[in-house]
Amino acid sequence: xxxVAKIQEWNETKLHYEAVGEPVDMKQAITPEVKAxxxxxxxxxxxxxxxx
Length: 52
What we know:
Blueprint: H1 2-15, H2 32-51
InterPro entries: Flavoprotein-like_sf
Protein name: FprA family A-type flavoprotein
């Protein structure tokens, strides 16, 4: 989505955070698909933190 692309651009030019998973584009309501994407991202983030 445009929002994800804008955030990625801002990260590349200003923040320089390391991406540890696929971004999740959340709207006002959380669908089962978005919930699964969020859970997968959370697990990826936890694995990255525990590996350090």
